[in-house]
Amino acid sequence: MKRLKFTAVLAAILLLTSIAPATYADGQRTIVDESVYDLLVDRFFNYTNDNNFDVDYKDPNAFNGGDLLGVKEKLTYLNDMGFTVVNLGPIFDTERYDGRLALSYDTIEEHFGTPEDLKALVDAAHELDMKITVDIPLSRVSAQHIWTSNENWALPNEDGTIDWNLDLPEVREALTNAVVGFISTHNLDGVRLIATDGIDTEFLNDLIGAIKDAEPSAYVMGDGDTGANFDLAMYDQTEEILRELFVAFDQPSSQLSDLPVSNENTAAIYVDTPFDSRFTYDIVSERMFPPTRWNLIMTTFLTLPGTPVIQYGTEIAVNGEKAPESHPILSFKSDDELIKHIADLNYLRNESEALRSGKYELLKNEDGMMVYKRWNDEETWIIAVNNTSETHVVELDDTVIGESDSILRGLLDGDIVRPVDYKFNITMDRETAEVFIVNEDRGINKGYILALILVWILFIGFLTLVWRQGKKRKEESSK
């Protein structure tokens, strides 16, 4: 097993030397260059017991102990998977573990930690070249919020929460100052404005503008199709299409063309949000095998245009029909096959400008067999996804690939496709996906072959040494 892993790593290093190093427009990352890991602080990792008052691990509705220092402790875990942004659920004083029933817009919830803990997290993330963003709810907050003492500011909802009366200039100003102040005070890299239903686009754009004036590099993300000028928008349509498409094999795939993705790349690509059923729940309900389903969908949305946003626990296929069942405290003792798959794909995406912000063309889309192209002036990728119950062969003209003397080199399973009569025939087994990079055909890769031979020589030499030592010990013990 160790020999196979070593061989795979060595082969990957040799194959990936043809990929251009990571580059960014104007030398600075933008939201399209990021890969986002979205988490709830209370349900991620419990680092310290100092803030574990009124914690009940057995009650899914109670605080379970996760804290900001727990996120800091696991930054390397997230960095190793290739994530570049960690988005925290709301961290203000709150009635509920998920942070949505906020009681203020300035004080950090004691269960989560202190301002010093948040600073430590942000500083540690920056050392790893990662960013920290935070959710801020603009409505549906607690009826006990400190602002409700202001006359006419609060608008009660039937569920007991309150919205803000944004017809009042003083409320708009207070909310804007609170959001901008929180970002600046804690040196955050941005925010995601949530609970935006019913809030007029004019105010949202004014708020976005105020954030950008104060912190020009801050990301401002939104949780719905509001029409506002968010850096990244999360459209319900995206989640619905991807879930329907990948919940089982042999699904109609024509809706892939309806995804709100384009070469502008301003849309989030995601299949789980904090308050829906987990996608794993849908998969199991269809009596499908979650690892296979997740393998296909991860390959797809980590190579489509847009910014991937992955919900915490996706890497271990967390299940659950609804909150709080879908919000377990995360277990870090699990099979790492999906974790490795995410890491491999994020590595490719992080290293390739074409996969992040290159052009996109859907080449084939028929009954679950999908092939699309991502490219720029430097490199071309072909992604093939067979979400069917049968093997398929897809024929591509060399004009689609770009060069007649090129080959398609698969970076997940190592397949190599060469042209025959100016055609590339890609064979895909059922329920598999492959990411091909277009390389110049240089014939036999002598360096790669020599490296594999060296691996075998070293391995055989190691086995011989072990055998001789065992034989010697056996002879000595028999004397």
TrEMBL record:
Pfam families: Alpha-amylase, Alpha-amylase_C_2. GO terms for molecular function: hydrolase activity. Its cofactor is Ca(2+). Residues 1-25 form the signal peptide. Residues 38-349 form the Glycosyl hydrolase family 13 catalytic domain. InterPro entries: Alpha-amylase-like_C, GH, GH13_cat_dom, Glyco_hydro_b. Keywords: Hydrolase, Membrane, Metal-binding, Signal, Transmembrane, Transmembrane helix. The chain crosses the membrane at residues 447-467. This is Alpha-amylase family glycosyl hydrolase. It comes from Chungangia koreensis.
